[in-house]
Amino acid sequence: MGIVANQSFKNILLTYLGFFLGGVNTLFLYTNFLSTQQYGMVNYMLSLATVLTPLMAFGVHNTVVKFYSSYKTRVSLNSFLTLMLFLPLAVVIPVVAATYIFNESISEFLAVKNDIIKNYIWHTCVIAVALGYFEVFFAWVKVQMKTVFGIFMKEVFHRAGAMVLLVLLYLKVIDLDAFMNGLVVVYVLKMVVMKIYAFSVKWPVLSFKRLNNLGAVLKYSMLIIIAGSVATVLLDVDKVMMGSYIDIEKIAYYSVAVYIAAVIGVPHRAMHQILMPLSAKYLNDRDFDALKSLYQKSSLNLVIVSGLIFLLITLNINQLYLLMPNSAAYSTGLFVLFIISISKLYDALLGSNNAILFNSDYYRVVLVLGVVLVLIMVVLNMVFIPMLGINGAAIATFIAVFLYNTVKIGFVYKKFNMLPFSKATAKTFILIAGLVLVFYFWEFPFHPIIAMACKSLLVVVLYLFVVYRFHFSSDISGVLKRYLRFLK
User: Fold this and answer.
1) Neighbouring residues of 190: CB distance < 8 A, sequence distance ≥ 6
2) Distance between start and end Cα atoms, the chain
3) DSSP 8-state code for residue 473
4) How far apart are CA 268 and CA 49, in angstroms?
5) Backbone phi, then psi, for 466, in 5-degree steps?
6) Which residues lie in coiled coils (predicted)?
7) What is the pTM of this model?
8) For 371-389, what is the mean pLDDT?
């Protein structure tokens, strides 16, 4: 876990920096500087672009990670990387052409409930292309075991850019249309900077020699579009579908709740970047003992870290909502936040499960299951959103994520005889549940910020004391011991 712990720690810090900036944007700047309709429209646009990202990348970001370590000669490696650079154009060019030709029809289809969406179809298309190629260039450096700068660009850059644009909008330096155009520029610039860094790490040597396993590479790329789309759809299709069923300002309430809950998933996102190439290497080398150790350690460590974040969010959420403008409206997302938070904690339990499945020979079966579950989620959203609004969308998401994750755990166990959890995992969940029962209804009679600080300090000390005292994880105990020694 050495390289995993080292890069994961840096990645987590950068990801939380990004989420801090995003939190300021989401909870305070967007909610103050944009109307709820405008904010809902921004979320809708970015969610739709995110859903399209795996298609725009043509699955290349996963293909690079899976096959890179299998090429042993310079010529074959250069040919492979050349193919990876140009392959996304097979989708990008037709999609851009279709957007140009059928712009009016697409606009009418997407703007059934909310007419404001019509004005930003091209914005969505360009951002989706930029996000797709960003992932390709990020994968380019992942396989060199260099993920830290990529995480900075992925998590921090666009949020800092949005913050600058929001301040300029508030100062009336720019208007709403200029703000939306500025967002497009930020995402395109993010892609360009990532490309420059990726090529500085490994300069591309263009080679168009045919690969021996070209069929396998192309087949994997096309199928992995589905895999990437499954994960993305599970996260964002609810917001896209809400645009056709409910008033767009309610998407803003939903998005704030989901964003806060997403903080729980930060350690998983950060660790996943280094787990992917390591899992691919162990699978290519058939080192299943190392793969199993990575699986179990990553799961336990993620549950412990994400569990603490889960506690800090759920135990302080009522005070946090009090700090927000229009708090009564945004606090209607409280149920959404709780149920999505639980799903994020379940995601943490999977550890390196996704990395194993995406890089193994069994990815085809998982893709079929994923497609089935996405269809179930779409149907659940169609049923629950009209009935329960944003709470219905949260329920649909939770059911889909629960089914999808359970199936993936069962599949890895069946094929590799590995489970991610242990007795220490059970102890961690008992500790989390106990602290929720003790502290949720207990509020300090102070200003919300002071009350949150006091409760958070108490919960952190108790949680880490139990984890350290009863040695839940050797990795986390080692980190805590180093910091305790430093403090002495």
Assistant:
1) 130, 134, 153, 157, 158, 161
2) 26
3) -
4) 22
5) -65, -45
6) none
7) 0.71
8) 85
